Predict the structure.
Amino acid sequence: MKPTLLLGFLFCFFATASIAQTWQYSPSLYLGDNTSSDVQIIEDGVGPEIKKATLDLCFGFDIEQSYAHLNVGNFDRVIVPLSISNDSLSGSASSVERKRAIKVALKRKPEKDGVSYSGTISIDGKSYPISEQPVSSRADGYRPEIIIDENPKEFRDVLPNALIIKYKYGTSPQLLATLRQANAALDVAPSFHNRCNDIRSGYEYLKILTPPQESQALVARLRKLPFVTQVGWTDHEKTVTVRVTGQGWVNKGVLNRTVAAAGLSAAMAKALGASVTGTSWDQKTGEVKLSFKRPSKLMPGSGLSELISMVALIAPDRFGDTNRAIVSVAGLSGHVMDDGPGPRVRVLTMQLAAGPGPEGFYIYLNSEEVAPLLKGEWWNGTEWTK
């Protein structure tokens, strides 16, 4: 055979050869009020022919909802190998968590932009119709990116008191038993809690806050637990992050709480045009709460006062020998009240909030503005700058 003919034959062969593929479809299934369902139908085939199909159903009853996030419920999961007969898909299995009897009887129809299914999924003898709307193939279930830095060189993108623990699904009681013996506060962030993702992946995430000076020892302790697969530092919600050098806040990696709190209080009082009324440290999180007071600027001369609270983290900027501090403001809030002598009026709705708004009423701070007040540096996305 001539070389040109051989090359032409091979090109035609590879161009026409079918390639094995996997598709995943997610039709809707409605189980009733206060329920949740996540259907995944995974199909393996060659060309248009389906060779294998599996249904992965995560579902929940008696769901309690908060801000559109599913928090609490009777969740379960089942994986059903499906028999294929022309356009019919069928199968049965028992659910993982509560051994419910699941039966599947579906019809499959190719569509222009995907596939449509019709039929029912039965749970403990009660049938639920599946949506007949066409669906397109998609990637596996989405989970937000969760930052876990196991050995941070410095604290800029992650904070020294914020930890993420990745552990085996169903071992929360054992994990909490350990955390109860430590200084730790649970930070129940909704984005870390998706029961279907947890059940399917076989692991869960928990975010906690702990004093920076105790975080290394706690991480080492958690890593020894057989059901913990990963633990490290992560980000925490904050509005301001500044690095302070040479003011005596940190000496050889040790924070001087008295000096640091006094320095931050003075700077923030100047920024807010207020006086300092209190300082207290949270023993579970390592954060400091600062309190301020100023005459109300929304109603000048009224005798009303604005009481402002700020939650901040002050800690060495890295583990080891350092004389620099990292300052992160995690919370800023307040309210208006009449606290003068004599008869007073009660103020109900005049709450302060962090963010832009009428000057003197809403509170707005950013790193670039706070850094000069602390004689520090702020991170501009590339480097620390003054």
About this structure: DSSP finds six helices and 22 strands in the chain. The two ends are 75 Å apart (CA to CA).
